[in-house]
Amino acid sequence: MKNLYLYLFFVPMCILVSHNANAANVLQSDWDDVVDGDCDDQGAGWWSSSEAIRISENVLLYQKDIGGWYKNIDDLHRVLTQDDKNDLIEAKSNNAGCTIDNGAVWLEMTYLSKVYAAISDSTTKANIKTGFLKGIQYLLEAQYDNGGWPQFYPLRGGYSNHITYNDDAMTHAMQILMHIYLKDGHFSITPPDSTITDAEDAFNKGIECILNTQYVQQGLLTSWCAQHH
User: Fold this and answer.
1) Comparing C-alpha atoms, which of 63, 137, 133 is closest to residue 98?
2) What predicted TM-score, i.e. pTM, was given to this entire model?
3) Do 72 and 102 touch, CB atoms closer than 8 A?
4) Helix 2-13 and helix 169-182: axis angle, to 10°?
5) Residue 25 in contact with residue 39, Cβ under 8 Å?
6) Is the preceding omega at residue 154 within 30 degrees of 0, hence cis?
7) What's the per-residue H, E or C state across 17-67?
8) Which of 50, 133, 139, 216 has the most crowded CB, counting CB atoms within 10 A?
9) Cα dihedral across residues 125, 85, 47, 188: positive or negative
10) Helix (H) or strand (E) holding 85
11) Which distant-in-sequence residues (6+ apart) come within 8 Å of 183 by Cβ?
12) For the CA atoms of 201, 202, 203, 204, what is the dihedral angle to 10 degrees?
């Protein structure tokens, strides 16, 4: 039964979208296109380039102390001034606004993993690994005891506290943890064994939450709400 729900839940949410053959270069593109490697100048060697490393440094600068990121950061891959960097460092302790909505966490951790796999500099790899592991801890901390994830964590009240399925929010959180505990090579960074165990436990709790929140109408199991209190 659990494997069946895994298939039913994840496969429809992971349908592949064809690449845009007319994508612009990195600086002119959207952040998700950069992460997916869809830009014209992102050949196989790009991920070890100085530009790719520069963007990974941006990703780490935008990461908050709690390990999460804000969503819809349009300039995450842009060239930052020193003043921009100083402002981001000063704002790191402002965790309010961290979210799993609209690809946040999923996109940043995917990007970090790709650069990590391509580079050899030990200092840069260590910095990226630290940020990646903080991202996992953010997801583990944000999960409710019932297995669901809120849209925003730290909690900020209102509907954003609800378990959130829409916009692939909870799906992306669970996909990250699934790849971590399966050690399937999707991510190039391997966490400590204790984190892998925690990821598996969190994933299984998420599956139970999915089963428990399926809506029953006239005695029949039907669908799910976008959000559940």
Assistant:
1) 63
2) 0.90
3) yes
4) 120
5) yes
6) yes
7) CCCCCCCCCHHHCCHHHHHHCCCCCCCHHHHHCHHHHHHHHHHHHHCCCCC
8) 139
9) positive
10) helix 82-90
11) 190, 196
12) 50
Angle between helices 50-62 and 82-90 (to 10 degrees): 30
pLDDT, tens only, 149-158: 999 999 999 9
State the Cα–Cα distance between residues 226 and 181, nearest whole angstrom: 26
Chain position carrying tokens 């979208």: 17
Task: Give the distance from CA 131 to its chain's centroid.
Answer: 12
Both structure tokens of 128: 């990226």
Q: 164: part of which helix (H) or strand (E)?
A: strand 163-164
How far apart (Å, rounded) are the C-alpha atoms in residues 209 and 189?
27
Position 74 confidence tier, pLDDT thresholds 50, 70, 90: confident
